[in-house]
Write a structure and sequence with these properties.
By secondary structure, the chain is of the alpha+beta class. It contains four helices and nine strands, in the order ββαβαββαββββα.
Length: about 170
C-alpha cells in the first residue's frame, strides 16, 4: 500500500515521503496513530493544505527530543542483579528494566525507545542506544553489577579504558 508519511519513521522515511509498506502495517499501525495517510487525491489535497502545520509540529517534536537527548547524553545507570561467580546473570537485563531505571533518574522514556542489540546476560558496563525520536538518538551507559562496590569499580575501569582509547585515537 502506498502511503504518505506525516511524521518521520525510523528506517522508513521522513515527513512528506511517499512510501510503500505492507497493508497490515499501514492499516493497523501507521494510519490509526496519525503517522501516515493513504495516497489519494483528497488526502494529498488535505496534506498540502496542512503541510506547514505538520512541519511545524514535527520540528517542535524534534527540538524537544534533541533537548532531552542533551540531558540524557552520558547518563550512567546502575542495575544491581544476582549473578554467578563467573559474572553470568540469573536471567538477563531487559529493555523495560533499563527504561524503568532511566525513569527513576527523572527522565520520561518509553521502553520501546531502548535499543538492545544483544541481550545483557553478564555483569559489566554496556553502551545502550535510546531512540528518543526517529531522527534523534543518544547513548547511555548501563552498569550491571552484583553490589554497589562492584558497580563503582566497573565504572572506574570503564572510564579509564575510554580515556585510554581516546588518547590512542588522537
Amino acid at each position: 500500500m502506498e502511503i504518505l508519511l506525516l511524521e518521520p519513521v525510523k528506517k522508513l522515511g521522513r515527513s512528506g515521503d511517499k512510501v510503500t509498506v505492507k497493508n497490515g502495517f499501514a492499516r493497523n499501525y501507521l494510519i490509526p496513530r496519525g503517522i501516515a495517510m493513504r495516497i489519494n487525491k483528497e488526502n494529498l489535497a488535505v496534506y498540502e493544505a496542512r503541510k506547514a502545520e505538520i512541519d511545524k509540529n514535527n520540528a517542535v517534536k524534534k527540538s524537544e527530543a534533541e533537548s532531552n537527548a542533551k540531558k540524557l547524553d552520558g547518563l550512567n545507570i546502575t542495575i544491581l542483579r544476582q549473578a554467578a561467580e563467573d559474572g553470568r546473570l540469573y536471567g538477563s537485563v531487559t529493555a523495560k528494566e533499563i527504561a524503568v531505571n532511566v525513569k527513576d533518574k527523572g527522565y520520561a522514556i518509553d521502553s520501546k525507545a531502548v535499543e538492545l542489540l544483544v541481550p545483557i546476560k553478564a555483569v559489566g558496563v554496556y553502551k545502550v542506544r535510546l531512540s528518543i525520536h526517529a531522527e534523534v538518538s543518544v547513548e547511555i551507559s548501563v552498569n550491571v553489577a552484583r553490589s554497589e562496590g562492584e558497580a563503582e569499580n566497573q565504572l572506574a575501569a570503564d572510564t579509564k579504558a575510554n580515556a585510554e582509547a581516546q588518547k590512542q585515537s588522537a
